[in-house]
User: Fold these one by one.
Assistant:
Number 1:
Amino acid sequence: MSPGHFVALAVILFVIGAVGVLVRRNAMVVFMCVELMLNAVNLAFVAFARMHGALDGQVIAFFVMVVAAAEVVVGLAILMSIFRTRQSASVDDPNLLKY
Amino acid sequence: MTRGEVLAAASGAASAAESTAFWVLAVLAVAAALGMILARRAVHCAVLLAVVMLSLAVLYALQGAPFLAFVQVIVYTGAVLMLFLFVLMIVGVSSADSLVETIKGQRMAAGLAGIGLLVLLSLVVGHAALASGGAASASYGPSNMNGLATLIFTRYVFPFEATSALLITAALGAMVLAHRERTSPKPTQRSMSKLRMAGSHPAPLPGPGTYARHNAVDMPSLLPDGSNAGNSVSPVIAARRAGLAQGGTGPAEGEGQSTTTGREDARS
């Protein structure tokens, strides 16, 4: 398998995640789509690391995983506090910063 | 058959196995990802995301990254998705997206943007020189772990320490955000019993299903005159039944009828 195949798969998954972020309105699902995009980028990193025969890409993918874990923790905590006050998980409802 | 021919045959078999695994996993991952953005319920989305992540883990292992494959399974599928499911349990498992568009033409615009992004990225990848199979260094294979550890603790030691600070900050932030200040004093046993005596019903409420046809939790118990005791069913279950009946689903209607027949049976 050439790295091109893996990068093409990563591109497809990234685009699916981006469309999901644009289309879905449940904040949880939006978060999951962001996770999908991060995973797609990780796949591309691993493919490039193999292409170059160096491990740097794998280290970057590892760091991406750590940052994604931190992001999920804080994001879900924000989501929970919004749900607690608004009783809703839709991204349409919180509009206090809008006006 | 010379040694070179044997090696070539072995590598050919290995690459055939790799390509088979790649195509199976790629189709699986793309299908699960598409299902994730199409599924209405958030729980189904989480399960489909788990499928995507597990197939990506196998793809990592296929590309000579066993450490990342295991981290993917442990951190993503194990920790992150479980966190997602926990929060889903709190927010409500049955919370489904409404299909009504709040912004007119948003889906069409999002689809067009997605196609545009796909074309753009495909052009970029198509123009990039992706050489097939670079020189496999000694860091691939059994010593992958050692190579990664050497890199993390030498060249990337400062980013690694920064991620530890980031993780601590994230944990603190989650604790602060999820913490709820108590605005009223905590009720004691004394205050709760005073509250009960002040109310109109000091005795325990009737249990569901008493003198009714079934003793299910959603079956109201019957009063001496044969009418339903409304407060015998938990308000949560009553609200759920009302929601089901509003949705126009069949089972709720059937249950309602069985309730009335049960009451008539108990009466006669």
Number 2:
Amino acid sequence: MYVYDAFDRKLVTERVSDFRDQVARRLSGELTEEEFKPLRLMNGVYLQLHAYMLRIAIPYGTLSSQQLRQLAHVARKYDRGYGHFTTRQNIQFHWIKLAELPDAMTDLASVGMHGMQTSGNNVRNITTDQWAGVAPDEIEDPRVWAELIRQHVTLHPEFSFMPRKFKIALGAAHHDRAALRIHDLALRLHHNAAGETGFEVMVGGGLGRTPYLALTIKPFLPARDVLSYVEAVLRTYNQFGRRDNIWKARIKILVHELGAAAFAKEVETEWQSIKDGALALDPAVVTDIAARFRYPAYETLDDSPKELAQARRDDSRFDAWMKNCVTNHKIPGYAIVTLSLKPEGGTPGDATAAQMDDIADLADRYSFGEIRVGHEQNLVLPHIAQRDLPAVWRALDAIGLALPNVSFVTDIISCPGLDYCSLANARSIPIAQELTRRFHDLDMQRQLGRLHINISGCINACGHHHVGHIGILGVEKNGEEFYQITLGGKADENATLGTLIGPAVPYAQVADVVEDIAAAYLELRQRPDELFIDTVKRTGVEPFRERVYAAR
Amino acid sequence: MTSPLDQKKIKITGPVVITANRVGDGAVVYRSADGGWTTKLDGAAITTDAAVARTLVAAATGDDLNAIGPYVAPVKLLPGGGVWPGNLREMIRHGGPTIDLSAALGA
Amino acid sequence: MPLVENGQVVQDRYLYVGDDEPIPNRVPIIVSAKRFFENVDTLIRRDGSVGVVWPNDRRVAELAPWLGHLALVALVFPKFRDGRAYSQARLLRETYGFGGMLRATGDVLRDQFQFLVRAGFNSFEVKKPGDAGVFAEAVRRYSVFYQPSADGSVPAQRRRVQRNANDEPQEPAA
């Protein structure tokens, strides 16, 4: 993971000091709320229903144990003892006081953390695959490039007041675990025929009121040109993105109104004039950034130690966890462990300060001090020696973080919804909670297999419901909460938007509807190993629609 | 519920209060009759008159130092005397998230 | 509203001339883009500096052929959140090589001063008198920048490569 140098630390310190002054001027009345709001948003400070919310950046989802402990400290000192991991690999605290924020930010800055650009009309947290750097199918660690771009867009004088937010994602494997096509800009690292490193550039993805999947505007951009090309895209957007209507202000609207070819040409013209200037990547710069990425000193270990197989035979619960939560690592003898933050009855993605401390301890002991945050709102210990898996499991099991429901029906992705968020139309968390209760039986979950449910409390789609296998969108009808159900969405390299199955159903019926959908799937699937998403693709939504609405 | 912060026309169909969030800590507050802010709903100025509501909102909007984003929110007057939030959004603002936080966190 | 240049409040040498007003002799003037293009031949020949207010929704490429004749270009921030003029400024400075006065007008506030300077502005019609007095301090808020910019401030990447070349340690000695 990237280790800050003196320049990085200075910048964050200066940012905190700047914000401290801005808060003081707000509290004294020198700044009106209208003048202050964009400034606080640029530091990740929202006003929600009950309090301010602080969103802290976890760049490309990588955390050190020291940083996780500091998040636990912030949760305890400035909030109500818990935090929420988001669908963009960030963390949110829901009960923040403005007056205390400069101190909270000082505490975060001491471990190289901040809320810079986690909100506002600028470039947001750059996300990637939570298995970056350790996945066997990756061609190269995308996080070095993510860090290069992150620095370039941080407090960028030209791109801090764009028409709207701008979200970038990077991927480095054919299998897309970073939901590239729902981003404003996505960069897929790969090699061309000559073996050179470069990026497929995709623009114009985004969910919300008008969902779009990103379009490829440049199949191969040499790595040396990545900063100048990103600059050209942002400059085109900053100048020509719509500013007259907040619902039409994202780059996806510009791309689709101009057409991909015309948009690409606009970017190309701008890029040609800057590509060989100051932003042409000097290899010494890449080397410098890469040098501050610390990688574990892996031991030379064998895969599948005998003790592991024996432990699996000895304990069926351990075996179930191995099958569900543990995946292959690119280094022999190691494994990637996923920690489900989706307990029965829980809020998806929440963790207490105590859990954060415990996970930090485990990371120190077993994962070279590193943790990852996934956009599915689960955590990852990315560097576990296979021989340590039994001990890690026992420790996780003891603190309730070993539930083997990853990618199953109760591994729900959900926004905070109307319980917290001032943008929401309906609640999302209680829906998720009820679903975890209805489907709590692990045998049933295994029978259903991989099944992604995404819940959003409003059309802003922070729960990514459009790309859920089952998508649930909260709407308001005459003061009551109703939910639209979509089926067949996908967030991977075959990204697809889900199809609405019928009229919105009331709050009390949502869990019943999902049970009906699950039952229909079990009847319709051709083989036990035909995944839910593949059944939906094969049959279309009609049989599910019939089943759900027959009695409603 | 759909954010009421963009209210352009104020339509009153029952008793309403003016509510906002306090600047210092973001807490939910209600405009009181003396032009201050209170966290207690039963300390709020209540009106059933659209013109009065507009005046109250305008005055509250000018009080940017203390409260952010004032708007008109419905309330219910209880038979025994007493005021209750008038819709789900206001219920949640008044009473907090509807989730049992300690249960949700496995505490 | 106060005009700030070189870190202090100064008198405006320029006169804004409305579209229907006569153009005075010799005095430095600022005209609208419309006026400029209606009278371009006269204006570029006049004895006295000429400046243009360029709207933020028009490509600066249209103005580019005339930059050699302009002493000043004024760009517009209708609201400070509308950041189009930052791109215009950088294009004028870095793509078109404009070396004259680049003035920020409109909703020009203290918390954007350093961004404006880095985008290439060197003249500021500051909206709030109170902000004018702290201009010099506000533009020194940050000493670390990740990006190259129009004002020539040295980005961190270059300082790092230099540090590495000089074999200096990543961290200063305590």
Number 3:
Amino acid sequence: MLKALIGAAAAAALAGAGVAAEITGAGSTFAYPVISQWSSDYSKITGDHVNYQSIGSGAGISQIKAGTVDFGATDKPLAPDELDKSGLAQFPVIIGGILPVVHINGVGAGRMRFTGPLLAAIYLGAITKWDDPAIVKINKGLKLPHATITVVHRSDGSGTTFNWSHYLGQVSPIWKSKVGEGTSIQWPTGVGGKGNEGVAAYVNQIPNSIGYVEYAYVIQNKMAWGYVFNSAGRFVGPSIPAFQAAAATADWAHAKDFDLVMTDAPGAGAYPITATTFVLMPKHPKDEARSATALKFFRWAFEKGQPDAARLDYVALPPPLVKRIESYWAAEIK
Amino acid sequence: MTTAAPLHDGGAAARRHFRRRGGAGDQAFRLLTGAMALLILLVLGGAALSMALGGRLAFARFGAGFITSTDWDPVGRRFGALVPIYGTLVTTTIAILIAVPMSFGIAVFLTEVAPRWIRGAVGSAIELLAAIPSIIYGMWGLFVFVPFMSNHVEPWLNDKLGSLPIVGPLFTGPPIGIGMLTAGIILAIMVIPFISAVMRDVFMAVPDALRESAFALGATPWESIWRVSLPYTRTAVVGAIFLGLGRALGETMAVTFVLGNAHEFTKSLLMPGNSIAAVIANEFTEADSDIYRSSLIALGFLLFVVTFVVLLGARILLARIGRQEGARA
């Protein structure tokens, strides 16, 4: 019904203007697969083209500030005062999960258990053997080798790293003070692979290694992921309901301009290492028609884009959050 | 080598000829080729200048510390280039140490030893090897060569060399297969086609009269190569090594696959490291602060400087060898 309405509206717009609108966006590589899939589906339905370039979050932010694109996308939310300064509005568009994966002989998917502080200690280089008492304690019944852990991380700057390091900072004060969070950080130990595929390849190649990879890659490559202990005190495995639970229980009500990183969300079933990509748009666009087209595209994506997202192993925003975003649009983007 | 001197006077006679005959066509030709040569200088100078300008924020903030610091902390915004410079030099050194003797052997085999049909087959194979894109070397390296290194070569190195004094620390550490030694070997495989193809061509170009004279004087094939062909083609051979050196210094994709991209300073060749080109390729897209971006561009400038210094060093070495030989003669 709604699709038909949008289609009709688009057809009317087409008849009126004679040409389809084309808008441009740039930024996050994390969200690129899903935004480009949405864009291709959306243009089939409405004729409007959304041209999205995955040039990286940092570059996306500078492009939207410079006004060269209609929207920017970043994995790291901007603070409200920075948004105010540049006259930008910000809202989340898509959720994904980040999973710890291991390569240990005889340990398959869903066998290992991790807590946040344990992951932080491994990535700090404080725990260096797989049979360390801290690991064995929560993995009774698993045969873990007396082997050196090889830590694998991303070598390129990425939203995945931002959310991973943000999570480790949430659960480990030492991580927060020694390393901090960012799209690139100074790793205390380990080897770096380029992109999710690089980390996945290194973990597959190096015995006794541990890495962190986006949900889609883990599922598609059948990697040995582990459960993670969440802040409600449960070991949670990665699943679309678990990611959505994190998005639903995160405290959006108190986050001005949606400035919130969802890691370590409080819900009982919430998966603790979830990542969000945020879209940035001018509050007072120079070209209102283009801005309206962009909003129409995101509205369509929120309402009709779930199948695309699910097929690519991303998670659509839960309906209450979508409502909140739509009222934010009405209030902020003129 | 006095016989070689009159054979190549560097085209001085031809140049004199050009200058004397000042026809309009010649004039235009001179201007045109001159402009092309000048353009190279302009591009080179422009590239160096723009990298220096782009990196000036980093140089101003960190000063000489940028070159001597092992820090690379995008969160704290402290940057130092020592680890990538070191990684670049170490991997390139390994590559050249392996590639030069191998290429020399290949070229000698192809010009002096091999029957004609093998010459053609191996020659084409080398040229094909040179045409493979570097990312293929990287993927082959990661999926095929890294497991081989980690299962067979590195445990052996650990065992046999790891406990030796002096060189021992170079071969310690867990045999994960990813690291500077693996990157150096992959680089060697990548530059061998370039060096050996040029060496083969220039050895072929040695006038038969020279080699036949050597044989007539009772030289063995080895003596004819080492004492006649090599000195005669020395400049071209060194040029071939420069070509390989340049490629090894700037190689990005293949290196980033097998080097491990770790900003850690280690003595061990088996441990992961980083190279200038790999850092830039990895981190530029998400460099989210001015000083971060500037540091990456400054790294590019340093690669330029490193390449220049290495090539200059090689040229000085060459000139010194030339002088010594002159003195001996």
